[in-house]
Amino acid sequence: MHLICLDLEGVLIPELWIAFSEATGISGFRRTTRDEPDYGKLMRFRIDLLNQHHLKLADIQHVIAAVEPFPGALEFSHNIRQKTQLIILSDTYTEFALPIMKKLEYPTLLCNRLSVKADGTILDYHLRQENGKKEAVCAFKSLNIKVFAAGDSFNDLNMIAAADAGCLFRAPESIRAAHPAIPSVNRYDELYACIEQFLLVN
Fold this sequence. Notes:
alpha/beta, Rossmann fold, seven-stranded mixed beta sheet
C-alpha cells in the first residue's frame, strides 16, 4: 500500500498567516515556517501579536473563508486520489481548517488545535504531538505502508527525511540551498511525476 503525505500551506493553498497579514496590514504575520525553524517561537510570537492588536479567532476565520486553493491544486489532489491515498499533514489548526478542507473536497487532515476564550481571544496552541508530521510518517511506515512526502518549509524536512521518498515543493531558495540532496520541484505536473515514479518503483 502507498500513501502520499503533503503539507497544506504553500503546497495546496496560500500561507494563511500571510493572507491575514495582507488583510490586517500587520507585517509581522508574514513570518512563517519558511522563515522560522522554531515553530514554538513562531506561534508564541503570533499569539502575542494577535493580543497586542486585539484580534480574535473570528478575525482570522473571516480572512480564511476567502482563501482559495492554488490554481490546479484541486485537480492535482483528484489525480492523486485516483491513484492512491492522500493525507494532509499540517501545522494549521482545526479552528482554521474547515473552510479550506471543504474547498479541497475534504481530504484527510491531521493538524493541531487552539485554546480560545469565550470572547474569541486565542490563548495558546496545542500540538497533536511533537514533530507530528515526522511521527505520522513513521507510524504509517510501521503499518507497512510506503510513504511519499512533500512540503515547502523547515517543518517539513523531518517528514520528508522519514518518508520512503519525497521532495520539496515551491520551497524558498534558502531551504533548497541548505538541503541540496532533497529533490525540489515547483509545478504540480513535476510533483505528480515524482509521485508516479514513487508508485512505479515501490
